[in-house]
């Protein structure tokens, strides 16, 4: 009989999701320190991009394997490679080694995206939203706190210490998962090429998946629009504040961590459609506040609404997609997360243009426009 998903195991999965995804954000606050350490080499600035590229490659090339392999073996195996990559980054003698290690760190940090469909598979259907919400709360905490932790370590120690500490944490995480994850052989094994080719057919055959990708893509683009330009706003008059203060807003955003399990429970009880709509409304309200009240208090309030809205929409959309094709949950998660990731990158790029041409009001207007596009998709025909 398959192992039941207990509260303790759910907590382990949430912790592991946060610890694994945190690895792709460690480098961002420490980038200036890396540049200085390598005698000002401009190529060091490519480290965050290499890590993000690795994460995208991991989504496309590694996450689908969870539908054809025992996820326990896959997750533990990725943990071992992640530890080695973090250790290589900590000891990197050259920029080339650091970039290669960063690429591998990004790819293997997709452990988080193996864990989410595993949790959805193990949960009872009537509890799936709550379970996914709990695991996603751990993932969001990892995203929001990673920059704060690495920035502090970099400020008081050395950037290499952060990567070395990350390797130790990843090793402990791997041991924890080795002893706690159940063995769950796949119902069917597929040739690797067939797994990748099926991504297109799944996208075409599942209109609910396409809608979820478009809606959450818009929400994550809004998320990226704000966080890409926040530091630019704070460094100008009347604030004249540094990147450390911008990082502190991540702690304010932890409100979204608390709301994630609640959103999951509401999605289980009342259905996901209304919760998705409420999430979109909160994102739109956040950007309205950003536009009208660009003060520290207004920004803090907007961050709470933004992160809460994005989380509500994400959890509810995931409760929809993980119920579509039970034997293809990893591939469905690949499609969902890749679409969201690409939309976030587009949002970051558009935010830079809006900031340069129209300033903060342009950024706020862009967020409202993208949010309204997501709302339009949400209100469209719901067949399929």
Structural summary, described in words:
By secondary structure, this protein is mainly α. It has 2 domains: 1-189, Growth Hormone, Chain: A (Up-down Bundle), CATH 1.20.1250; 198-384, Up-down Bundle (Growth Hormone, Chain: A). Helices cover 78% and strands 0% of the residues. It has helices spanning 7-22, 31-37, 47-61, 71-90, 95-108, 111-122, 128-156, 159-180, 192-205, 207-234, 243-252, 255-270, 272-292, 296-321, 329-379. α4 (71-90) packs antiparallel against α6, α7 crosses α14 (296-321) and α10 (207-234) packs antiparallel against α14 (296-321). It is globular and about 60 Å long. It starts with 6 loop residues before the first helix and ends in a 5-residue tail after the last helix. The mean pLDDT is 88.
Weakly predicted, low-confidence segments: none
In the CATH hierarchy, the third-tier topology of the largest domain is known as: Growth Hormone, Chain: A
User: How many strand units?
Assistant: 0
Shape: globular
Indicate the multimeric state: single chain
Question: What amount of the residues lies in strands?
Answer: under 5%
The gyration radius over C-alpha positions equals 20 Å
Question: Largest sheet, described in full?
Answer: none
Helicity, in percent?
over 70%
Q: Identify the CATH architecture of the largest domain.
A: Up-down Bundle
Instruction: Give the number of domains.
Output: 2
Structural class: mainly alpha
Main CATH class of the largest domain: Mainly Alpha
Give the overall pLDDT as a whole number. 88
